[in-house]
From TrEMBL, chain B:
Pfam families (alphabetical): DUF1989 (PF09347)
Boundaries of every DUF1989 domain copy: 52-218
Protein name: DUF1989 domain-containing protein
Domain of life: Bacteria
Entries under PANTHER family matching the protein: RE64534P (PTHR31527:SF0)
Amino acid sequence: MTTTENSTAVPQHGRYATGQAPARARDLHLTDSVLSARDDARAQGGQAGAWMPYLPASDSPYCPPGVDAAALVWAETVAPGGYTHKVLARGTRLRFDDPSGDACAHVLLFNALEPVERLNVADTQKVPWQAYPGLNHPLLSGDGRVLAVVSADSSGRHDAFCGTTTDAWNERKYGDARPEGPSPSGRGLFLKAAAKHGLSRRDLPPSLSFFQGVRVEPDGTLAWHGSAGAGTHVELVAEMPLLVLVANVAHPLDPRPGYVVGPLRVHAWRGAPTGPGEPRFTATPELHRAYLNTVDYCEARGL
Amino acid sequence: MATTRTGTTPVSCPTAAGGTVASTVPVGAVHAEGSPLDWGASLVEGKVVLDETVAPNAPWSAVVRTGHVLTIVDVGGNQSADCLLYNADDPEERYSVPDTLAWQGNAYVRTGTVLRSSEGRPLMTVVANEVDRQDTIGGACGKESNTLRYGHHVMFQHGCRENFLAEAGRRGLGVRDIVSNLNWFMNVPVEADGALGIVDGMSAPGRRVAVRAETDVLVMVSNCPQMNNPCNDFNPTPLRLIVVEPAPVGVGARSAEATRTAKEGA
């Protein structure tokens, strides 16, 4: 596989070679007793890798500019070909960063309290009368509510048409789609993330992706526009309690023959949901009513 | 002729107690009197194994066996046949808009489009089509999403999501199984700046689309009420669904054009 990142060498021996390489040579046999094995395992702690979660989140070396590190609730660099997931409180700010220009954040959102309410891509395109997610674009559930809204976007290259990759797609394109292999599919990773929340493939609707753009040409052709370059970001406001699933895999229409994907940075911090006093709340009639529905649900729920 | 929006005219219904109630719920076919209706016929010749009518606003489902061809007839024109497909043997594998679009690299459904599953596998193939393009972007209407599009006063009009849920329930499926769908005969263009929406249709009474099952497929249809969108003149009409076992290759396969020519010549 081909991975890209900012500063460290491209790993040659599997996705996690850089992130989890031991600090010392492993040619010594250090597990001849329980105590030796314990010492050996403990000696591996505290290392840093190119992709890993940062705990506590305030320890992130990549805290976004202008954000109080103490307010961070999630900080992680997702490996190329990796996935992550998190439950976030209503009002949380969620930021994705593409440091190399080759990340592709495939995202699914669920109402964390009732996951049968989930991202509905058709409504997300149809209701705002706009196919391309950008600033102030609501990510809608099928129940007429705003799961999240795009609150900042320096990329402008996102896609709501193509979803993520399947095993069938990656087997055809790369010859391998195993989740533990060199070119895992987005769906395969979503299935793992979903399983950790008691969800299954019945619970996976079409997804959105950020950082690799697609545009519809007049004859309907889906043209891959790729990324806007290294160093862009997109931010969301969680307007409801969210279960977020993220798979960082190559976009289905990426024309490059290799499995090209870079690391994806994820940061989230405490904040307030969009309220009635804010311009976004009434920016369009559709968004206004979606917010009214969302507030109605949350008020009744005591959120 | 002028028509009123569905469900706004009270109907007197007898009750078990012998009285009547005034209901605004439409009963039976509600298309305007005098609407042109063309019931058509199968687009592909073969032995008819199923031939059913879906009333305006109603749901429908059936299993179409491998190799059989389903023709959907837009009886009154510019109706929307919202449609979901499932692997009949494993309904957790179901129709996927993004897989269908990504595999063909195009946002619209036309003859030759392979309708793919959430696993990327072929469920059905469009083998004949009598409108320029078919939609699979616009999704379904629903009570809740309609409130965003039209206002909260439409909450108690039902929609396709209600139909899908009702029909899914009869098949042992539920809300987890409802995903983005096909809209036969609906027109949803995407403009250069990304603007998109449901606009006036390109269909007409009797226009048809035919899809061949590539595996045993459970087909669910909601004959879209389209109660708030002028693209159908607020005049929901019936659909006819015909499943045939096609004649052997080379014996009776007719193109859409050949069938239409024969029909117009008749």
